[in-house]
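testing teh design pipeline on a random one, pls ignore if ur not involved
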């Protein structure tokens, strides 16, 4: 199946497929989901030609806000909504896992060497404690690779980002200093003077690709499809694992998923689990403001969590397990 080549520059993207359709469904949020939604919206035209989708890839935080304001039919977020935000909503919001993917650690070095990193080293890079690519800790992880005496330029998200949530959730789980000082969240207070900020996964990928010595994080599709090198990460079992659908599936298989579907899967146990893996959710009201749009959206989501998952591996995502799919179909039946 032909892959979508994603842009690495830009802030937000608007999609409109099946332009003769009668029902317009508006969504906004996660850039992590951008590759999946792009393909799914296109493929779904063969299922229902009377619906089209406008999706703004503007970050998970913005997607949550627009949903809370009832200005979109659905939000998309790689960070589950917090209890206090849910309490402010004008109705009950449901979390529906829609994709599972790996956050790739991307970099720009001469010759594009294949690097190995661990969580402690990665945290200390973003804390500003490791500032050169030939630092002894990085050299020790990469025997036989000639690393330059070049400054490391960390790049992070400037906007409220579920990808940042997954990344900082992972760093908090493996580095006590990170957990105590920066913590985890869609928006965190990054250490002062450390690196550069960019908007969206597109912006992070674009900055890293243009900056010699740059390092950043983005959903695997942005690295893979734009040919940006990414590191193998040391997992909880002590193995160096590359982000891929299979290694994300190995992490997802260990996740304990509660009834409300809000869960984390970073630093998962298992020999083959990729440690910076996460889910992304579609956020919808149980009682939609627009009944017609709500019915069309439910039909699409039922397709996406079943038939759509067959497309996921070709887009660098791990398909949702059958048991999770069935639980989501049951939850979708509660939307009125």
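output:
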């Amino acid at each position: 199946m032909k892959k979508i080549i994603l842009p690495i520059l830009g802030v937000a993207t608007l999609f409109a497929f099946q332009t003769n359709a009668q029902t317009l469904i508006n969504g906004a949020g996660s850039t992590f989901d951008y590759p999946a939604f792009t393909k799914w919206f296109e493929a779904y035209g063969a299922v229902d030609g009377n619906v089209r989708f406008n999706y703004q890839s503007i970050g998970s935080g913005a997607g949550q806000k627009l949903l809370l304001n009832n200005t979109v039919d659905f939000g998309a977020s790689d960070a589950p909504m917090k209890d206090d935000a849910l309490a402010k909503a004008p109705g009950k919001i449901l979390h529906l896992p829609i994709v599972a993917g790996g956050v790739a650690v991307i970099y720009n070095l001469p010759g594009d060497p294949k690097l190995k990193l661990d969580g402690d080293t990665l945290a200390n890079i973003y804390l500003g404690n490791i500032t050169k690519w030939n630092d002894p800790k990085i050299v020790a992880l990469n025997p036989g690779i000639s690393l330059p005496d070049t400054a490391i330029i960390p790049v992070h998200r400037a906007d409220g980002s579920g990808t940042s949530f997954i990344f900082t959730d992972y760093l908090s789980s493996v580095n006590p200093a990170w957990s105590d000082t920066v913590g985890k969240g869609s928006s965190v207070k990054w250490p002062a003077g450390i690196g550069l900020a960019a908007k969206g996964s597109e912006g992070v990928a674009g900055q890293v690709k243009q900056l010699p010595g740059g390092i950043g994080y983005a959903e695997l599709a942005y690295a893979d499809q734009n040919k940006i090198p990414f590191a193998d990460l040391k997992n909880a079992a002590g193995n160096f694992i590359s982000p891929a659908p299979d290694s994300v599936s190995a992490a997802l298989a260990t996740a304990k998923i509660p009834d409300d579907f809000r869960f984390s899967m970073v630093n998962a146990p298992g020999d083959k689990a990729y440690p910076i893996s996460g889910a992304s959710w579609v956020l919808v009201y149980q009682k939609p403001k627009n009944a017609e749009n709500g019915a069309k959206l439910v039909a699409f989501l039922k397709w996406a969590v079943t038939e759509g998952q067959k497309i996921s591996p070709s887009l660098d995502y791990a398909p949702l397990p059958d048991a999770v799919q069935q639980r989501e179909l049951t939850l979708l039946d509660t939307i009125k």
